[in-house]
């Protein structure tokens, strides 16, 4: 996956009214890009979709004209991992002999690179 495949839905969620949806009972959620103010859900897989308006923010004239182009921002990209320090790799290598087979294989691959 590419960084642009990840979206920052937390920033959008700050403006929405999620208390209108019973999340403890929800089985399936549906968010449509062409209806960004609505959230549809099912509380049973056999029932029809229930749609609730979750965004009360009034749109400007420009936003109304571009409502089909609703954008969800990309999150700030985290710094790449520095990997394990040489001391940590040495500690893991010293413990390999006492690890279960599955863990040993994973950890040996981890310290190899």
Report what the structure shows:
By secondary structure, the chain is α+β, with helices and mostly antiparallel strands. The chain folds into 2 domains: 3-69, no CATH class; 84-113, no CATH class. It has 4 helices and 3 strands; from the N terminus they run αβββααα. It has a 3-stranded antiparallel beta sheet with strand order 1-2-3, with no helix packed on it. Helix 3 packs antiparallel against helix 4. The longest helix has 12 residues, at 101-112. The radius of gyration is 23 Å and the shape is elongated. The chain starts with 8 loop residues before the first helix and ends with a helix. The mean pLDDT is 78. It comes from Lepeophtheirus salmonis. This is (salmon louse) hypothetical protein.
What value does the Rg take, in angstroms? 23 Å
Q: What's the oligomerization state?
A: single chain
Give the strand order, joined by hyphens, for the main sheet: 1-2-3
Q: What amount of the residues lies in strands?
A: 5-15%
Strand count: 3
Bin the helical content: 25-40%
Count of discrete domains: 2
The biggest beta sheet reads:
3 strands, antiparallel
Structural class: alpha+beta
Helix count, per DSSP?
4
- Described by the principal axes of the CA atoms, the overall outline is elongated
What are the segments in which pLDDT stays under 50 over at least 5 consecutive residues? Answer: none
How confident overall, as mean pLDDT?
Answer: 78
Gap between N and C termini: 22 Å
